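pls design
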C-alpha cells in the first residue's frame, strides 16, 4: 500500500514539469489525482503518463468559472479532497524599468489571485485533516535581477500559507509551502527566447547551486508526496526548501 492509498488529490498545472511529476508520484502512492491546466492536448498526454488514477479537467485557475467547473467534477466523485497542490503559476523576466501593467497583472492574476481562488473554492470539498501545498520559489529570498514581480507573487504565496495554516487548524488541515530551487523543467527553459540561450540559462543556474546541478522534477515531487502524507503530520505553516542548498549555504 502506498502512503496515499484511497486519497483524492488535485494538482493544478499538472500537465508538465513539477506538476506532472507530482501527479505521477501521488498516483503511485495510491491517490486518485485530478489535474488541471489550460491546454487540453497536454493534459491528455499527462493522463496517458499517469494512468487510470488520473482525471483531467481543462481550465485556467485565474478564471472563476473554470475553477467552479473543476470543483464540480471533483464533487461529483463523492469523496471530497484530501490533497491540494496549488502548483500552477507563471514566470517572466522584467527589470524594474521594464515592468508593465500587463506583466504585473498577468503574474499577480495567476500566481496570487489564482492561488487564492484555488484554495478558497476548494474549502467546501477539503476533508478534515487534508493537506494543502502551495508552490513557492527560492527567488523570494534571492533578489534576483529581473525577477522582482515574480518573486513578489511567491512572497505573497508564502504569506498565504502561514495565515491559512492558522485559519484552518481547527479542521486539522495543514498548509505548507514547497520551495524548489532551479529545476530542469519546460517552464524554466521557456524563460529564454531560444534553445541556445535556454541551455546557457540552465548552466548559469546550475553553477549557483551547491550540489552543482539543477533539480529534477521527481525530486520536488518526492517532497510534495511527503507533505501530502501523514509522514508530515506535525508540519504546518512551514516552507520546505528543495533547492540543492542554494538558499541554505
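designed seq:
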Amino acid at each position: 500500500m502506498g502512503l496515499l492509498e484511497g486519497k483524492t488529490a488535485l494538482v493544478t498545472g499538472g500537465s508538465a514539469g513539477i506538476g506532472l511529476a507530482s501527479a505521477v508520484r501521488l498516483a503511485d502512492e495510491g491517490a486518485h489525482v485530478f489535474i488541471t491546466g489550460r491546454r487540453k492536448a497536454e493534459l491528455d498526454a499527462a493522463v496517458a503518463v499517469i494512468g487510470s488514477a488520473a482525471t483531467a479537467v481543462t481550465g485556467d485557475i485565474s478564471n472563476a468559472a473554470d475553477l467552479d467547473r473543476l470543483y464540480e467534477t471533483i464533487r461529483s466523485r463523492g469523496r471530497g479532497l484530501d490533497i491540494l497542490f496549488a502548483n500552477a503559476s507563471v514566470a517572466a523576466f522584467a527589470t524594474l524599468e521594464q515592468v508593465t501593467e500587463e506583466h504585473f497583472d498577468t503574474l499577480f492574476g495567476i500566481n496570487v489571485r489564482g492561488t487564492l481562488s484555488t484554495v478558497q473554492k476548494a474549502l467546501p470539498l477539503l476533508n478534515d485533516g487534508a493537506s494543502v501545498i502551495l508552490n513557492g520559489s527560492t527567488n523570494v529570498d534571492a533578489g534576483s535581477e529581473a525577477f522582482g514581480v515574480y518573486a513578489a507573487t511567491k512572497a505573497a504565496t508564502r504569506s498565504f500559507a502561514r495565515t491559512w495554516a492558522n485559519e484552518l487548524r481547527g479542521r486539522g488541515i495543514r498548509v505548507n509551502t514547497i520551495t524548489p530551487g532551479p529545476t530542469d523543467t519546460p517552464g524554466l527553459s521557456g524563460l529564454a527566447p531560444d534553445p541556445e540561450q535556454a541551455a546557457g540559462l540552465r548552466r548559469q543556474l546550475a553553477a549557483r547551486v551547491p550540489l552543482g546541478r539543477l533539480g529534477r522534477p521527481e525530486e520536488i515531487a518526492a517532497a510534495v508526496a511527503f507533505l501530502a502524507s501523514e509522514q508530515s503530520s506535525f508540519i504546518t505553516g512551514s516552507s520546505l526548501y528543495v533547492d540543492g542548498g542554494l538558499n541554505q549555504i
